[in-house]
Amino acid sequence: IKRRVRAETNEEKLVEEAIVEEETAKTEENETAQKEEIAKEEITVEVATEANEEKSAEEETTTVEETVTAEERDADAEETAAATETAETAETAEKEAAKIPSYLTDNEKSQWSDIKLAFDLIETDAAAAKEKFDNLNKELGGRSYVAMYGSALATEKLIATDPKQERNAIQAYRVLVNFGSKLPKEILKPSLQSVVSLLVQSGRVRMAVSTLEKYLPHASDDTELSVLLVDTHLKNEDADKALSIAETLDQDDTDVKILKARAYQVQYDKNRENAAVLEKAVNVLSSIRDKDVGTVLVLGKCLQKLDRVDEAMGVFSSAVAEGILPSVFQRPDIYTPGLTTRPVWDEVNVPAVDITDEDKEEIVQAVIYGGLFGEMEGGNTKEGVWGYYEISDNGRWLSEECKPVPALCKKLKKAGFGKIGKTYISLLYPSSKTFPHTAPSNDVLNILMPIRGSTSLRIADKNLEIDEKTVVIDPSFEKEFSNASNEPAVILVSALPHPDL
């Protein structure tokens, strides 16, 4: 029993040991499994971490690459912009360099920006521009043709506000053209054109002719200046010289044809029996296909002087239909559109002035009987004598001409007359009349004040007697004066700005 008990006990121990071993083995298995699980989890985490780290690294690499790429792009853009700016700057410099006149000296080219600014300043402040040009001329050695030309141009601009500057402008241009062939043609030509215009405007036509004749050989190939010389000869009433030069020019040129026709007119005005020259003028002008204002006006005037009035009116009517002239009667050389047009102005502000009987007698005795009047310019006298005595011109009162009539000049000047155009005393002898004629522009009116006698006026389709009351007319309308009485008819004429201006 004891052996059996011991055997059972041993068996139980063995069973228990087996169980313990089994449980231990299970525990170990569980622990191993757990360790494996933990290991797996750690591996998973590690893999995930590595993946995240790799991803982060990739992202970081991508970011770095993107940053580098952006920086490269910015650098490329900056480089491109810089290159573009450089190219644009170079292009601008080339354009600016191209604008610099080639005839300038190297020193003048280096000062071109200042010279250009001075030219731009002429329109707004001519006095300041002149000062700049004079200073530039000093800096450039005292003989900078472009600076001297700019100074002359600025001085000419000053005439509008200070008529006394006209003399200075003429002198400045004459100094320039005296350089002759040394002067660049780009400066010689406009200087000649300006000085001739100023000389003619001031009544020194002969000096204008001599100036052109002296210096034109330095630009003999310039047709425009040759045409100007012909025109100036005509203003000097030298038709023969005008025609001799005109014959050397292009005979098919419209301007040349008009100049020749004008020359024939001048010849006729000097010899009224030579109507054949007017016929030449009509033939020359009729050959022009595309007639402009100048052609129409000269052609019509020639026909009127030949008493071919209906043909003249036909020419004017056709010009009106084609839009060349504003109306049959209003035919100025220079037409300013948009201004009120009427031949006679009944309501207009005329400066108040009291011309006494004593003033009128002074005019008659000093000017008329004193023999101071000259024949009216323009060849518009048809019969008898039409004379005039000028006392102001282009805003200037003529001191020498005012000496015989000082009281009249003083009164008119004080009242505000003579600010533009001309003021003159007009004399029409008995049994005298004029050809129909028009003023060169429509931007002024004429005040007609009767001094003695009665003057008949036909203007457009209106007939007036100027004997007692002052009359205001638009001289750009066709008009003709006549005196059928037995005594001289004297009127005082003064220009007035158009009311619309």
Provide a descriptive summary of the structure in words:
This protein has 501 residues and is α+β, with helices and mostly antiparallel strands. The chain is built from 17 helices and 13 strands. The strands form two sheets. Strands 1, 2, 4, 5, 6, 8, 11 and 13 form an eight-stranded antiparallel sheet that branches. The chain has a five-stranded antiparallel sheet with strand order 3-7-12-9-10, with no helix packed on it. Strand 4 and strand 5 form a beta hairpin. It starts with a helix and ends with a strand.
How do you describe this structure in short?
By secondary structure, the chain is an alpha+beta fold. Helices cover 56% and strands 13% of the residues.
Distance between the termini: 159 Å
Q: What percent of residues adopt helix (DSSP H or I)?
A: 55-70%
The stretches of 5 or more residues where confidence is low (pLDDT under 50) are none
Radius of gyration over C-alpha positions, nearest whole angstrom: 49 Å
Sequence-ordered SSE layout with sheet pairings:
Elements: H1 2-99, H2 106-110, H3 112-121, H4 126-139, H5 145-158, H6 165-177, H7 185-201, H8 205-215, H9 223-235, H10 239-246, H11 254-270, H12 276-286, H13 293-305, H14 309-321, E1 344-345, H15 357-368, E2 374-375, E3 381-383, E4 386-393, E5 396-397, H16 399-402, H17 406-415, E6 422-428, E7 432-434, E8 444-452, E9 455-459, E10 462-466, E11 471-473, E12 479-483, E13 489-497
Antiparallel strand pairs: 1-11, 2-4, 3-7, 4-5, 4-6, 6-13, 7-12, 8-11, 8-13, 9-10, 9-12
Helix pairs in contact: 3-4, 4-5, 5-6, 6-7, 7-8, 7-9, 8-9, 9-10, 9-11, 10-11, 11-12, 11-13, 12-13, 13-14
